[in-house]
Design brief:
Length: 246
Amino acid sequence: MSDAITFNGVSKSFGPREVLKDISFAVPTGGAYVLLGRSGSGKSVTLKLICGLLKADAGAILVNGDDITGRDSNALAPIRKHIGFLFQSAALFDSLSVGENVAFPLRRHTNKPDGEIRDQATAILEKVGLAKEFQTMPGALSGGMRKRAGLARALAMEPAILLIDEPSAGLDPITSNEIDQLLIDLHTNQHATLVVVTHNIPSARRLATRLGFLDDGHLIAEGTPEELAHSEHDIVREFMKSQQAG
């Protein structure tokens, strides 16, 4: 099986602060890779490097075999069409209805007629349980519904790779489980490659085929949930014992 994402010796700093230090890992096509670590350990930075929102200072990043290191926005555009990104905040356009938020990537990146775009957006909203919310404005949504709407927009272009930043942050346990199940269904039925950042260990155990643990800029552990639960590193073992959501 080929790798959808590969990091080879990637480093990233912001001024004097080294966030990632010589990071290397690979995510197989169709895999579900969960990144763990304390706040500020570089997890969200890693997601932004994968889709080119940030650029690495050193090393190489490959997406489906294409080296994206140093590419500008125009050169990244064809690759980004195959990547969906669910931000922690859902990052919806507050001036657009839920349906038009989902339709936005289709209007921007395809030449499909308006009716077809609306039908496709409606079908995606139905998939995430928001079929009746096409005309609803984002400000009227609950936190869980905003997360679902953000996921729907991330799915609009039928991405082969889905990057998810803290899918359960701020959600109650029931809603968090529902979001997890949507991601599991997407991974299972559409064979999408998932890269998930989370502090929610029960969620990580449900979602991951493999986990990585970042600490002080280094990837100090990789493996299955069971392997990380028995890691040589105290911090990894303690993290894996946590039952806290969010």
